Amino acid sequence: METAVYSTAGQELRKIDLDDAVFGLKANEAILWYAINNELANKRIGTACTKGRGEVHGSNTKPYKQKGTGRARRGDKKSPLLVGGGTVFGPKPRDFSYKMPKIAKRLAIKTVLSLKVRTDTLKIIEDFDIEDGKTKKLFSILNNFGSGERTVIVLNEKDRERTVLLKRAGRNIPWLSFLSPNRLRVHDLFYGRRVFVLETAVKEISEFYSAHQNRRNITVGETPA
Predict the structure, then answer these.
(1) Which of 90, 119, 146 is the last residue of a domain?
(2) pLDDT tens-digit readout, 173-213
(3) How far apart are CA 88 and CA 93, in angstroms?
(4) In this structure, are strands 2-6 and 122-125 parallel, antiparallel, or unpaired?
(5) CB-count burial class (<10 Å; 0-12, 13-18, 19+) for 143
């Protein structure tokens, strides 16, 4: 599969070949749903906490006698039926995270990359530097492709100095996020209106995910061979 490489000015420079095994897969909505929900669940903090009947502050004595008042029986003031009483079956701190099979995770990433290529929202950009790490310079480059949209840039993590300066320049742009080839997130890629991949990062993505090529495509619910 051929696609264009763009300059920072938004002009087409040349064509490069993309690996069809990574960027040319068919749509698999089920695996995308599974992967996105997994990432969102793993991000949940799970610190919500309520007090039960045995944890709220209050006396354990009966507020009034059992019989003769005409009122309902009360064991203590901490009853869930009373204001200030305990909560019944309320949330407690818990871990919402769970593991997703590596084969399914990699398939989801390749599927969302293929989807972005097919919808022409993924663009390959020549490697560029922000030497002084200034936000203004990076912002002007992004404006050449449109502005104000949720954007993801996939960087080449092997070039550490360039990566640090690019991240410094982009940390003040609220709708911009950065990813590395070996740590792609399906949620960010799927909801990104624009996905920019540096030319050297494309090679890293192809090498990393081709090395872990599945024998066959799987769907949610199947057991890998």
Answers:
(1) 90
(2) 999 999 999 899 999 999 999 999 999 899 899 988 886 55
(3) 15
(4) parallel
(5) exposed
Instruction: Give the span between the Cα atoms of 142 and 149, in whole angstroms.
Output: 10
Domain that holds residue 81: 50-90
Residues 173 and 116 grouped into a single domain: yes
**Distance of alpha carbon 110 from alpha carbon 102, whole angstroms:** 12
The residue written with tokens 């066959």 in the block is 216
For the entire predicted model, the pTM comes to 0.81
Q: How far, in whole angstroms, is CA 203 from its chain's centroid? A: 22
Q: Name the DSSP class of 153.
A: E
Sheet containing strand 2-6, strands side by side: 12-17, 2-6, 122-125, 194-198, 151-154, 176-179
Backbone angles phi, psi at 196, to 5 degrees: -110, 130
Encode pLDDT of 70-83 as tens digits.
Answer: 999 999 999 999 99
